[in-house]
Specification:
CATH class of the largest domain: Mainly Alpha
Oligomer: single chain
Shape: elongated
CATH architecture of the largest domain: Orthogonal Bundle
CATH superfamily of the largest domain: ADP-ribosylation/Crystallin J1
Radius of gyration: 23 Å
Order of helices and strands: EEHHHHHHHHHHHHEEHEEHHEEHEHHH
Structural class: alpha/beta
Number of strands: 9
Largest sheet: 5 strands, mixed
Length: 518
């Protein structure tokens, strides 16, 4: 049970009413939690090819290159530094405590020595000064002092390098907005001493926290967390981004304020026209098209878009290839984000357990692997079949249920060829808020694998609802009449449910709607 502090605000009067409401982290909140680092990383990788160069003439692509140079789908320092923070937060550490700040500072130094592919000017100066200094005192204090010295000497320390990594901090204290703000500013000040850098991180981390809990943007509610003397100026900056949400108006976005405006404009503009996967695509496209520091603005926007719309809204084609330092992929980002939100990873629960406890669930242990009646190189199976990929000659997998850390990638399957979809076997529309889009994305992923000549296993726990439903959508996309697809699949898989929300939606006989909220 989590106690969530819900805050209603009346900004113009400066009055705040706080009510504590006991609630559990819902399925949708877990989805949104999982989307934070994932959305950031995908935005980062989409922006990499266009950083400080001509923006794309059409939708951006994860084609690599940039200042790295980076491989296609590889994220840059924006997400690398966020991962440094997440690896500490996912242990259950209190990010605002001195020992945790020491761990984050040490992680930054290790990253700089062993993994940094690109380092911002201010961050580089602070880290090299910390490494070359006399030491003494807690590491986080030494690093913070180095940042303060740079600011006092130059008056220039409000770059976007703290803001770019702060989305994960929004998950560090979901029940406490003040603690979130404290954590955000403390971590920002490790490298960026200008108060505006800290302010921007407080705002963005709170936006993420609120989005995960409610699925909504509450930009005005963040301002009460700032010092009184700067609220008016920030209100004007936020209003400028929201009233005319055109990211291209904020192209000089190396400055933390302008970077926040560009990212916020991209998110607000997308949300006014779209929901779910379409909003994520539109928001990240807009962030990249803002130009200049494209990977950073898109990474910032992606963290909030993921918090608003969830991992279920991040396209599989992106999740399939996104990767980066320190040798991790999409599923690892989900694990770190959920671990942070839960106050630490628990190896007895998803997403940290080695194997999911499906053994007692009906046909989960029954080997099946039935060829799709309209494409025999697509096998419809169970968890038992996931353990038989070599035997089955499978070289690509689409998983439709939660997996343990030892389950993926499947034996003989490359990491990028094992895609996990966020799909629940539920009759509640709110559990699958983007059900039609997810079914379509899963079927499109099978099509993509097949176009590459791969043999595909599509499976859930027991092949009774999710896998047959995706198989039905795959058939419909191939032009098979709905009634034919339905009859053929029921004949090939006589034990499937063949009814219910997922099945009807897959066949196009129902389009579910889910309301916003927890």
């Amino acid at each position: 049970m989590l106690t969530i502090v819900m805050v209603e605000h009346i900004l113009s009067l400066g009055q705040f009413i706080t009510t504590e409401v006991a609630m559990e982290l819902t399925t949708r909140q877990t989805d949104r939690t999982a989307g934070v680092l994932l959305g950031q990383a995908c935005g980062d990788a989409l922006g990499v090819p266009y950083e400080f160069s001509a923006p794309p003439v059409s939708d951006p692509e994860m084609r690599g290159g940039g200042l790295g140079p980076y491989a296609p789908g590889e994220w840059s320092d924006d997400t690398q530094m966020a991962v440094c923070i997440a690896r500490v937060a996912a242990t259950g550490a209190d990010l605002g405590a001195p020992d945790a700040l020491d761990q984050v500072a040490a992680a930054f130094l290790d990253w700089f020595d062993g993994g940094a592919t690109d380092v911002g000017t201010q961050t580089r100066h602070v880290i090299t000064t910390t490494l070359g200094g006399p030491g003494g005192g807690p590491l986080h204090a030494v690093m913070t002092d180095s940042a303060s010295e740079l600011y006092e000497r130059t008056g220039r320390a409000a770059g976007n390098g703290a803001l770019m990594r702060t989305a994960i901090v929004g998950l560090s204290a979901l029940t406490n907005r003040d603690a979130t703000a404290h954590n955000a500013r403390a971590i920002a000040e490790l490298t960026h001493a200008d108060p505006l850098a800290g302010d921007s991180c407080v705002i963005w981390s709170e936006l993420v926290r609120r989005a995960v809990l409610t699925g909504e943007i509450d930009a005005w509610g963040t301002l009460s967390l700032l010092p009184t003397e700067r609220r008016g100026q920030w209100a004007q900056w936020v209003r400028d981004a929201i009233d005319d949400p055109e990211p291209k108006r904020h192209s000089h976005n190396g400055f933390t304020v302008v970077a926040l405006q560009a990212a916020l404009a991209a998110v607000v503009r997308a949300n006014r026209s779209y929901d779910g996967p379409r909003a994520v695509r539109a928001g990240l496209n807009g962030a990249v098209l803002a130009g200049d520091d494209t990977d950073t603005v898109a990474a910032i926007a992606g963290g909030l878009l993921g918090a608003l719309h969830g991992a279920s809204s991040v396209p599989a084609e992106w999740r399939r290839i996104v990767h980066g330092w320190p040798g991790i992929r999409a599923r690892d980002l989900v694990r770190l984000a959920v671990g942070t939100a839960r106050g630490g990873l628990d190896d007895r629960r998803w997403p940290a357990t080695g194997r999911m406890p499906y053994a007692g669930q009906g046909d989960a242990q029954r080997a099946l692997a039935v060829p799709h009646p309209h494409d025999r190189e697509v096998l419809i199976g169970t968890m038992a079949d996931l353990a038989r990929t070599r035997e089955l000659g499978v070289d690509a997998v689409v998983s439709l249920c939660r997996l343990g850390t030892d389950d993926a990638p499947a034996a003989g399957v490359r990491p990028g060829d094992h895609v996990e979809m966020w799909l629940l076997d539920s009759e509640r529309p709110e559990d699958n808020p983007h059900l039609d889009a997810v079914l379509d994305d899963a079927a499109a992923t099978i099509e993509s694998f097949r176009s590459e000549g791969k043999r595909v296993l599509v499976h859930c726990v027991a092949a009774q609802q999710r896998a047959p439903s995706v198989a039905a959508r795959y058939a419909v996309r191939r032009g098979i009449p709905r009634h034919v697809a339905e009859a053929d699949l029921k004949r090939a898989l006589p034990r499937i449910r063949g009814a219910g929300l997922l099945w009807r939606t897959a066949l196009g006989t129902e389009v579910p709607t889910a309301t916003k909220g927890p």
